[in-house]
Fold these 2 entries.
Entry 1:
Amino acid sequence: MHEFTEWCAAQYKSRHCFGDISQTSDDFGYQHFTRNFFETSHAKGPQDAAGGIIKRQADCAILRGQTSDKDSKRSLYEYANSFLTQPRSHCKRRIFRYAETIHRDNRLSFKPVPSIRSLHQVRASRDSAKGLINISELSCFCVNCCHHMYMYDQCSNSIKTGGYTEWEMKREYRADAQENEENEQVSLQELVSVGQLIALYTDDDEEEYYMLKVEKSMETLRIDTTDSWGSLLPAGTPMFRGLYYNKTNSPFLYRLVNRESGCTCCVSGLYFKKCRYQCSSL
């Protein structure tokens, strides 16, 4: 079985999903199971509209004053059931169901996997001991890795992909989970990737923060560097390179300044998020 999915860490690439994959052969009888992760936003398609339309319409309803209880699950269900059951597309109807609570299977709790956000392929095999997975930063589909041979140790592209690392998924129990959540640390290099939009602290009295689109991964300066905006960063500073945004007359529209790149110190990062603002080039 080969799967291809989005890389969202909170949904498909969490440690608990990896732990679930380690049990796949026993649960479903697969001889070999492989999951591959696309880069950010590369798996966008019609399926995303199913949930996206509800969120957009709910935002519009709040702005129009049709509903004011934006934090209520019941309120969202009642609004969708009243106004969104008759689509304008080829679908005949939409059916919404409301669940007061969702049962969570605590048995699917597992301990963290190092650098999980940089991984793009995870494999599980019935031949391996239970709980063992093979992980790689790049996916490979050479003859040795596929076509019912599955000789990962003889991967033809191991020089490019870095090969596979065997990792044991260990169960995490309630007491351990709370302790790990308190002690687990994630580096900035794992949080920020190329193409993301970040907000930066500023000492400008007129601007609470600056918006920057990351163009290059985090690096440490070897020499003193001055960017196109006149900012000076000394050698040894961990930093990102990217393009700044200018504000426009609309609070929801930013203008990307392509002509001048900027450098920013990593510790000035205020907020990290995928770029979802409506932007235009300058």
Note: Residues 190-281 form a domain with the SH3 type barrels. fold (CATH 2.30.30.490).
Entry 2:
Amino acid sequence: MQALLRNGGARALANAGRGAFAPAGTSASSLIAPTAGTLGSPRWIGDTGVPENYGQWKDGGPGTGFLGTPKNHRELLEKRPMSPDVLDIDGERVHYKFPAVALSSITNRVTGCVLSGGVAFGGVLSFVGGPETLPAFVEGFKSWLPFMVYPTKLAFGFPFVYHTLGGFRHLYWDKTTEGIDNQSAKASSIALFAASGGISAMIAGWTF
């Protein structure tokens, strides 16, 4: 209890000492009351204290204009690109170049989504119509749109081949930690695109 009284007395003396340097017309209660600073420690900016609209353009207040903040900074903030930003503010130009390694990584994710969507479509179709629905759908598609058979098989074959070969490449990277430097990754990415395209074209050319 005595320690608490001593601490309270020291705080009161400190606040009273600050009163000698406070702006004219400041009441003692405003010095003791907590403000924006530490408890019991008033904070002053010039002779006016901390304005309520400090740092904001509100009710005609100056805000941070003295720091060079433009009046339309809210509008500029809405145009600020999200992180990681790919497109410029106009939404048309691209910030960065996409090397072969980046395109390979993006393609790996896209092909994975395509494969998941294809499996989900076949599963839902078989669940609703029975196990014979999917083969009947394929045969009907081949008879209705024969000119679309090769492009469709190529569109489904490329994701399967690319994602499979890409998976083997990642297994090799994880097992050996080799081939992950920029030059090797670029070479393997180009080879992956070429091999996947060639194998997919051959698979699509088969009649089945």
Note: The chain has two domains: 2-69, 100-205.
